[in-house]
UniProtKB/TrEMBL annotation:
Pfam families: SusD-like_3, SusD_RagB. PROSITE patterns: PROKAR_LIPOPROTEIN (PS51257). Residues 353-495 form the RagB/SusD domain. CDD domains: SusD. It is found in: Cell outer membrane. Belongs to the SusD family. The keyword Disulfide bond does not apply. This is SusD family protein. Residues 24-220 form the SusD-like N-terminal domain. Keywords: Cell outer membrane, Membrane, Signal. Gene3D superfamilies: 1.25.40.390. One of its GO terms (cellular component) is cell outer membrane. InterPro entries: SusD-like_N (IPR033985), SusD_RagB_dom (IPR012944), TPR-like_helical_dom_sf (IPR011990).
């Protein structure tokens, strides 16, 4: 999988599609660089790999727009103003570069998926099993991108086929419900088309259980209380649907709970029994590594530890509140966070940083070249989401407690009883810190406003954060998109 996705993907993208640059200005379907590319199974394999390659920005997108947005990090702005500081401070506007990159990165990947889906046929890919797999993979990746878009921006343009510039400029924002309809249809189809597992070089590709797990997450997101009209949460009460999907994954026997927390994230244990789906990365100067370890840690830490790469700045702090939430003896704290360090000049730096994905001996050729995969869905998440659905559907309290205690035991903590929704949410916070889930968890459970405002009162020492309000559940539509055709897109409330 790593060879397939990482070597072919970058080359294929440039040949398949034109520049997107946030404007959906893909080459029209009549362009020979698209139509004439697809001749046989190998061409479609390369095209699907290009779609996987589009997931390379998924980890940083969720670092900037979920972790930094949440109570897990305090990034108020020091040493200059970076694009993520307004995200942290709830002062972000439509001109922020992170908004345009999130939008355009998702749509670039969607266009790659649409290219496959528009062109695949039995005459070009005669093997039905292979054809189904390619179709299912494209639908899975497209659904994942639309799920990001609807959670970050609400309703967005629904584009299911390759379109030219003129056509793109007439497509307005679809409703949140319409986008969810497409996401659900794609994931349901993918679950029917994809295999249960892979072997050899294909290990790491999307499976039917990955599709069902993300679909369960979709149902959980839709089910929570509505705080914002046109937001991603619909009070749909689909907990039973999520429960049944998660139980299928649990009962499949394909996944095993790993009892050593650190082993889940080992560079030598990627695509392990905990992995339902993860973004694949490979170091070695091929342009297919990840920047995440260097993005989370400061250059001064790297230099002090003789790691010959650097990050952009020293100011992405883990919040004191997150650190204090870990009980004494919780092994996840020491694995996830570095609590201060001595720099190369012998000075102690009294700041906290995420180090979850760092192996000091496994750096690549530069700061963007770390060979550690990034989890999108772990088996532990499947179990904890299942426990959550049991709480909402009148399930067994003992079963809920048993799941949470399995996670706590691995963390070195004593068992507890009577787990409720708040207890579960805090356990998820500690377990999945730095994995990009926290903001989404707060939004879908209806806790974003109350939790964030209470957190600000304790954490915002610099007094630079605006109070959290319902409108800030969504981000602003990028100004680059609004400028394409004035009046086509309306701006989200509050911006």
């Amino acid at each position: 999988m790593q060879q397939l996705l990482k070597i072919l993907g970058v080359v294929t993208v440039a040949f398949l599609l034109g520049s997107c640059t946030g404007k959906l200005d893909v080459k029209p379907i009549s362009d020979p660089s698209v139509v004439n590319f697809y001749r046989n199974q190998q061409d479609f394999e390369q095209a699907v790999n290009a779609a996987y390659n589009g997931l390379s920005t998924y980890p940083t997108r969720h670092l900037f727009l979920s972790e930094i947005r949440s109570d897990n990090m305090y990034v108020p702005g020091e040493g200059g103003t970076y694009d993520w500081n307004p995200v942290n401070n709830f002062t972000v506007n439509s001109s922020n570069a992170l908004m345009s990159s999130a939008w355009s990165d998702c749509y670039n990947t969607i266009m790659r998926c649409n290219s496959v889906l528009d062109n695949i046929s039995a005459d070009k890919v005669p093997d039905e099993t292979v054809r189904n797999q390619f179709t299912g993979e494209a639908k899975f990746i497209r659904a994942l991108m639309y799920f990001d878009l609807v959670r970050f921006f609400g309703g967005v343009p629904k584009i299911e086929h390759l379109v030219n510039v003129t056509a793109a400029q007439s497509i307005n924002r679809a409703s949140v419900q319409e986008i969810y309809d497409l996401i659900i249809a794609d994931l349901e189809s993918a679950a029917q088309l994809l295999p249960a597992s892979y072997s050899g070089a294909s290990k790491g590709r999307a499976t039917l259980y990955a599709a069902k797990g993300i679909l369960a997450r979709v149902y959980l997101t839709r089910s929570g209380p509505v705080l914002l009209d046109k937001g991603p949460v619909l009070n749909s009460n689909e907990y039973a649907k999520a429960r049944d999907l998660l139980l299928e994954i649990i009962n499949s026997g394909k996944y095993v709970f790993i009892n050593n927390y650190a082993q889940i994230f080992s560079y030598d244990n990627e695509n392990n029994s905990e992995s339902v789906f993860e973004v694949q990365f490979k170091s070695g100067g091929t342009g297919t590594g990840t920047v995440i370890p260097a993005e989370m840690l400061p250059g001064s830490y790297m230099r002090a530890n003789k790691i010959p790469v650097a990050s952009g700045n020293d100011f992405k702090y883990v919040s004191n509140d997150l650190i204090s939430s870990y009980p004494a003896g919780d092994v996840r704290l020491t694995f996830n966070v570095i609590q201060g360090f001595t720099d190369e000049n012998g000075n102690f730096v009294n700041q906290n940083y995420f180090k979850k994905f760092l192996d000091p001996k496994r750096y690549g050729v530069d700061l963007r070249d770390w060979g550690i995969n990034q989890p999108v869905l772990r088996y532990t998440d499947v179990l904890l989401m299942y426990a959550e659905t049991l709480l909402h559907t009148g399930g067994s309290q003992t079963a809920v407690d048993d799941i949470v205690n399995q996670v706590r035991t691995r963390a070195g903590l004593a068992a507890i009883t009577g787990v409720n929704a708040d207890t579960l949410l805090e356990e998820r916070r500690r377990e999945f810190a730095a994995e990009g889930l926290r903001w989404h968890d707060l939004v879908r459970t209806g806790k974003a406003v109350t939790v964030m405002n209470a957190w600000m009162a304790k954490e915002d020492e610099k007094k630079v954060m605006k109070p959290m309000k319902n409108e800030f559940i969504l981000y602003p539509v990028p100004q680059t998109e609004i400028n394409i055709k004035p009046g086509l897109y309306d701006q989200n409330a509050g911006y």
